[in-house]
Amino acid sequence: MRFIKFGLLITILVLAIYAAVMYSLVDESNSFTIEKEINYPVEKVYPQFNQLQNFTRWNDYFSSSRTMRIEYYKPYEGKGAAISFDDPKNEKSGELFIRYHNPDRTLRMQVFEGEESNPTLVDVKFVKAGPEQTRIIWNIHTPKRKLLSRITNLWTEDEFTENLNRSMANLNALLGNKVEKEYLISSIKYDSLMVEKQEGQLLLGINVSATNTREALFRNIVMNHNKVYNFVLNDLDKREDEFGYAVLVTGADNYKDKDVSYFLGIPLSKRVGVSDNSFSFRTINETQSYVIYYQGSYSGRVGSIQKLLQNAKKENVRYGDIQQVFLEVPESENSVRIKLILPVFR
């Protein structure tokens, strides 16, 4: 009995000291500001916040978990938009509301986590820092904490900053794919031979052999494109705006062969674990290349390929495998839009 009383006395003493420290040294709520810049104009950045289906794609709090379930409520964007979320594996749940928005300028969100009755207030300000730059200013105000749980305020800012760093990297990659695709489609000049510096890429795809006849080859490409595309979307849980165009890599002059071997892959930002052995990674190195944009029947691409090869021979340069970038999903042999890339070396 004496030990029980002594233990109880120690427990009360420890709790009293803890309460005194929390009361005197730790605020009941926490407020802080974080600023970030991103190299995209505000009119492209703001919709990624204001539209909650966009917001949850890149915000690491929601996108990092495969078990996160989210429900979206009308109007989906702007004032009144809301979501509820639940992640039983990571013990996260709550609701998020947009309470105010001023297009391309400001946004106010309220986040209720778990059983918390008081929200975290998130005010986001968007400032044009240049023609293609936006400064994003986050003002965070956490809810008042009870005395015994107030210690969490000591690391709230660090946790938010870490999440924000990962989220901004995701947003930068997402906008990069969106803007690159939009710009590429709008600025295409077909059938003109150009010299471009191609950036390196990491492709995830499959190695294939097919009969080189008009219908058989294209049918084989469509089948394998869909296989890779669905694997990246469903098995890897990627979204369309998270990766680039499908790329077919093959020998530059094998269009004359009876059988064609090729690698068809989709560019990813980094290597991931892949359980299906039929898929593999292939690295495309940064190179100087001859480029032609082509539109027409798939079989008609041969003329553009020959034009690239003739120019390489004329310039007396070595060349590598040709890359066929599908700017549209391949569906009909009679209508494709592709970018033909011939890497060259002097």
UniProtKB/TrEMBL annotation:
InterPro entries: Reg_factor_effector_dom_sf, START-like_dom_sf. It comes from the Bacteria. Gene3D superfamilies: 3.30.530.20. SUPFAM superfamilies: Bet v1-like (SSF55961), Probable bacterial effector-binding domain (SSF55136). This is Polyketide cyclase.
